[in-house]
Amino acid sequence: MRLYSLFISAPPSMIISSAFGWFAGIRGINSFFWRLFAGLLAVIVLSSFLGFGVHTYLNRDEARYGKVDVFVGGRKAVQAALIIYQLKGQDALVEWLKSPGNVLPTVYIVDDHGSEISGRTAPELALRSIEENSIPEVEDHVLKNYPLNAVEDIEINGRPYTAFAVFEHSNHDLPFFNPFGTGIPIYVLFLVALILTAFVSAILAYYYTRPLRKLDGAMRAFAEGKLDTRVENSIGRADAEVAALAGIFDKMAGQISRLINRQRRLFHDVSHELRSPLARIDVALDIARRDADRVGPSLDRIEREVDELDRLVGSLLAYARYEQGAGMPLTPGSISAVTAEVVENTAFEAQKKNVSVVLEDELPSKFVLPINADALRSAMENILRNGLRQTPAGSRLSVTLTATSRFVRISLCDQGPGMPPEEIEHAFDPFVRGSHEQTGTGFGLGLAIAQRAVQAHFGRIEARNLPTGGFEVRIDLPRTEAVR
């Protein structure tokens, strides 16, 4: 009651300004949650006011004001007055007629001279229509058979009276009185409705922004270094648009995570590869300091280790260059010529192991493609050198060139032990050596460099074990230029 009294006594402008002042003072007012909340609240409130206004306008029927109410509401109000008189007498009836509850419609009880029993003044239009017996007929078939009358003749303390109801505005002194007959100021009802609307809007805003908050939390966690953060499964498929965005985030996070982990592994492997020759150089220097007779062999050892470091740095530079796609202009060139040169060089190196290198070129003559000859040569040389290390003495390496309507295939095969199936998936990762590595002289960068070089040609590279034994690497380059 104290709260109700406060609402009654406080001006509406003060209440509304206080509410907006509180709302504007909330932190994060520019957040999506509060903007959505304000939008939902505004839509609901405006829709309510619009609906109330339209309803009031369509039902204003000003011609009804001051006339006898012949509808159900008026008839019930007249019967209510009669019941009060029958149960409680004239004094109670007069008190009720004067009370705020006697409204919409308002009941009047007049004598033969038009004087109202409670001292009020009855509307002239209603009195005239009763006197002239000109009360309009009701066309509604339900009301025609309704058991209650719009105008009732009654006797109070031996005097005849006529009871009727009139649809008119209330004239009591409650501020901003509402049209629902509850006696509560209309702005209090609006304020209660506003609070309920705000509550519903807050729930809806919270529900609709929940997947976005989850996505925001995942992005923040990922930014803090939690690379295994994923969010799509926690959002679900109910919010299709946000779920699609979460799927894109998970895909991006996975790619970045793989990239960072690959870089970390690369740094670790580079450190490991550098440590071994540096340790051997340190041992050679120590031996040279202690034993003058072994200075020469120690210097030879140092020279070999420096050459190995130089090859490692060169391989790393090539890998980084192909990884970034830098310095890779493609110009029309002959794949047959580049392949023949690589086979010739590899055959020269293979003489030490008595390994033959065979080229089978099935491409048409003068067949050209946009290529980078150096990158393609480097890719094939790395693959063949890996094969040469794996291939036993007295066997052979084979290179085959074929063409289809869509691509050119370069097939490079050795007769070594191949790779375990579980290792083939990672064959093109940097610093990966197969478990069948025999000599241990490679850095594990050959196939990685070959893959980056092929990708720079917009091609693909695959590795597999041959059914008859051995290992095959296939390079497919897109055929974008016709045979000449």
TrEMBL record:
InterPro entries for the chain: 2C_sensor_his_kinase, HAMP_dom, HATPase_C_sf, HATPase_dom, His_kinase_dom, HisK_dim/P_dom, HisK_dim/P_sf, Sig_transdc_His_kin-like_C
Record protein name field: histidine kinase
Record's keyword annotation contains DNA-binding: no
Lineage: Bacteria, Pseudomonadati, Pseudomonadota, Betaproteobacteria, Burkholderiales
Enzyme class, broadest EC rank: transferase
Top-level lineage group: Bacteria
UniProt cross-references to PROSITE patterns, sorted A to Z: HAMP, HIS_KIN
SUPFAM superfamilies recorded: ATPase domain of HSP90 chaperone/DNA topoisomerase II/histidine kinase, HAMP domain-like, Homodimeric domain of signal transducing histidine kinase
One of the record's GO cellular component terms: plasma membrane
All residue ranges annotated as the HAMP domain in the record: 206-261
Membrane topology qualifier: Multi-pass membrane protein
The Histidine kinase domain, residue ranges: 269-481
Main location: membrane
SMART domains attached to this UniProt entry: HAMP (SM00304), HATPase_c (SM00387), HisKA (SM00388)
EC number: 2.7.13.3
Gene Ontology MF, one: ATP binding
Catalytic reactions of this protein: ATP + protein L-histidine = ADP + protein N-phospho-L-histidine
Bilayer-spanning residue ranges: 6-24, 36-58, 184-209
UniProt keyword list: ATP-binding, Cell membrane, Kinase, Membrane, Nucleotide-binding, Phosphoprotein, Transferase, Transmembrane, Transmembrane helix
Organism, as annotated: Sutterella wadsworthensis HGA0223
Localization, UniProt: Cell membrane
PANTHER family (UniProt xref): SENSOR PROTEIN CREC, SENSOR PROTEIN RSTB
One Pfam family linked to the record: HATPase_c
